[in-house]
Amino acid sequence: MRIIALLAASVVSWIAMLVPGVISAGQRPNVIVIMTDDQGYGEFSCHGNPITSTPNLDRLAKDSVRFTDFHVSPMCTPTRGQFVSGLDAFRNGAINVSSGRTLLRPELKTIANVFQESGYRTGLFGKWHLGDNYPFRPEDRGFEEAVWFPSSHINSVPDYWDNDYFADTYIHNTKREKYEGYCTDVFFREAMKWADNQQDDRPFFAFLATNAAHWPWFVPDSYRESIRDAMRANPEVVKSLDPQRKEDLVSFLAMGANIDDNVGRLDQFLEKTGLKENTIVVFLTDNGSTMGIHYFNAQMRGNKTTLWEGGHRVPCFMRWPSGIDTPGEVDTLCHVQDLMPTLADLCGIEQHLPPKLDGISLRPVIDDHSITLADRILVINYSRMPGARVRYTKGNPAIPHRNGACVMWKHWRLLENRRLYNVDVDLHQDQNVAADNPEVVAKMRAHLQQWWEGVRHDVLEPQRVIVGHDAENPMLLSGCEWLDVFVDQQIQIRRGDRKNGAWHVQIDQPGVYKFELRRWPRESELKLAEGCPPKQVTDGTFIAGAALPIQQAKLRIGDNIIPIAKPNQAQTAFVSQQTLPAGPIEIQSYLLDENGDEICGAYYLYVKRQNPK
Predict the structure, then answer these.
(1) What is the DSSP letter of 444?
(2) Which residues, in sequence order, are CB contacts of 404 under 8 Å at separation 6+?
(3) Rounded CA separation 40/218 (Å)
(4) Is the whole-model pTM more than 0.90?
(5) DSSP class of residue 63?
(6) pLDDT in the model for residue 80
(7) Which of 20, 440, 507, 514 has a Cα at 20 to 30 A from 393?
(8) pLDDT at residue 20 above 50?
């Protein structure tokens, strides 16, 4: 068998020398994909930003293929799901940032699976946002190393209580661990430490996804002064901002400056370790800017969560010193689903890709910027936040709708199936030219309808967390997975938002299950009915927590209502044990006052199967 293996390796190496595009396992490049949060196209000095300076990212851009018509989703979970799966959001299940619709279909092969099957080490550092529980965690989806935090941002509902970006507790390979340092510094540091593994000579694939520059805008204060200086030197840029907005912008851009410093440190590491020449580095952002519309938006209209160009056109730089001969701009219309097949193609592992993808390999235009890819029409659609104001439906915008889409074809943009823009001559999208171009509208509408027919039957199906599986027992379910209800920020827990919703789960096996219904998470040690004072953290203050008159509770499991008259002795939780069969079911919790009237759901539900094997 050893002789056969050696012969096979020799044959592969011989083919690699003779056949263009075939890469032997020993020659395969490392891959690092950096995805930042809430930075738009205009947040970088190489794109003309008048305030901030991003020299390290500018240098990366100069040495890269730069995709200038590159698109993502206007919200982060759909973008991440599309990157990880190579499929449109409405096909892969991850369509919203919360509300039970962040979960990537468990049967899908991920980009980490593709690289792992090809002999790569795989690591995730930072933001995942595609499921906090089994079987949706990064550890379940092909990442052998993972340092991450749950849900949408640090200080989200299921995150460790009162994490504040500094010296926080994250999840390391399913276990909580405390890390010293500022969050972005930690994720870059841990990624580099993992990549520099002298005992493992396999190539690596690293997904380095920062929570910065997502709100809350916490950052080491040393990064702020240079931003303030630049604002004082360019007062016209920020003259319309009130003092609070101006200070928020300072912090937001300071977070970007810290990201830029970390990109510089990463480059130094790659050079020092000799990895730079054969490492593909990709840099992109997950949606349009949250702040660009207030000061500089690279001539685009719109921001995060919108269908305007500023909501989803983002930077994408790709550098590979030993494999990409000619840096420069590529103006081909492309989107984040294309990265999975493109990276597989560049690394010579495309045989491990799933058979059906919405993305295509961009290698032809990377190799030759002058060629044109086959004509394609792309669709951006996603589930909005419950309560968002939209014009395409009078119902809950968290429920997917056909007309909540941006259809893109060449330089045309069809928004909400009614407004047409030509971004070649009208990047700011001021002129609706639908009436002047009926043939274009008809073609794009026909494509949208055909696309919708292919996704509409599956997109409403809730993906189910598995309860009681040996891979995660005990487990925490949080309010951020209540279907089509938005509770995803610890500030909402402190306020005591009076909301409730149901968890759609799959009971893994029959048995006795213990349920703990809590208003506050365990680590807070707070009692059900008490509030909490404001808390000064490293770079800000968390508001006081309101007291709620919680006296009793009930639990709904399927059609069965279980009243719980009294909390536990510590007054921190209501506890119930129930014998459950295996299978799909809804679970809902209710925290009640002394009269039995509902206050809210239990934001935290801890579940444990009591009779494990």
Answers:
(1) H
(2) 381, 382, 384, 390, 392, 393, 397, 416
(3) 18
(4) yes
(5) T
(6) 98
(7) 440
(8) no
Find the helix or strand (DSSP H, E) in which 366 lies: helix 363-367
Cβ-based neighbour number of residue 306 at 10 Å:
18
Which residue type does 467 have? V
Distance CA 68, CA 70 (A): 6
Residue 166 is given by DSSP the state B
- Report the mean per-residue pLDDT for the chain: 94
Strands in 419-422's sheet, in edge-to-edge order, are 377-381, 405-409, 412-415, 419-422
Task: Give the Cα separation of 571 and 589 in Å (integer).
Answer: 17
Tokens of 488: 């995803």
Positive or negative: CA dihedral 212, 218, 222, 227: positive
C-alpha dihedral, 25 to 28 to 34 to 40, nearest 10°: -130
The conformational region for residue 286 under phi > 0 = left, psi -120 to 50 = alpha, else beta, is alpha
Average pLDDT (39-52) is: 97
Token duo for residue 527: 């009692």
Residue 23 predicted with pLDDT over 80: no
Q: What single-letter DSSP state applies at residue 578?
A: E
What confidence tens digit (pLDDT) does each residue in 523-549 have? 999 999 999 999 999 999 999 999 999
Question: CA 281, CA 273: separation in Å to the nearest integer?
Answer: 15
- pLDDT over 90, % of the chain: 91
Q: Taking each helix axis from N to C terminus, what angle separates 243-272 and 55-62, rounded to the nearest 10 degrees?
A: 50
Whether omega before 135 lies within 30 degrees of 0, making that bond cis, reads yes
DSSP H or E stretch at residue 67: strand 65-67
Burial of 584 by CB count in 10 Å (0-12 exposed, 13-18 middle, 19+ buried)? exposed
Q: Give the position of tokens 């499929």.
A: 87
Backbone φ/ψ region at 415: left (φ over 0), alpha (ψ -120 to 50), beta: beta
* pLDDT at site 15: 41
- What angle is formed at CA 31 by the lines to CA 27 and CA 33, rounded to 5 degrees? 170
Closest CA to 31 of 110, 104, 123: 123
User: In degrees to the nearest 10, what's the CA dihedral of 527, 529, 531, 532?
Assistant: 0
Task: Please give the distance of CA 378 from its chain centroid, rounded to a whole number.
Answer: 20
Query: E strand or H helix at 15, and its extent?
Result: helix 2-18
How far, in Å, are 176, 293, 599 from residue 236 at the CA level?
Answer: 46, 15, 49
Q: Where are the extended beta strands (E) located within 81-203?
A: 121-127, 145-149, 169-172, 175-178
More confident: 295 or 395: 295
Q: Among 263-267, 393-397, 460-464, 559-563, whose mean pLDDT is lowest?
A: 393-397
Task: Report d(CA 80, CA 43) in Å as an integer.
Answer: 20
Question: How large is the C-alpha radius of gyration of the chain?
Answer: 25
The pLDDT of residue 26: 66
* Side-chain half-sphere CA neighbours of 424 within 13 A: 9
What distances in angstroms separate CA 66 from CA 51, 91, 364, 375, 528, one per listed residue?
22, 28, 14, 20, 53
Instruction: Give 69-83 pLDDT, tens digit per residue.
Output: 999 999 999 999 999
Q: CA 205 to CA 69: how far, in whole Å?
A: 25
pLDDT single digits (tens) 437-494: 999 999 999 999 999 999 999 898 899 999 999 999 999 999 999 999 999 999 999 9
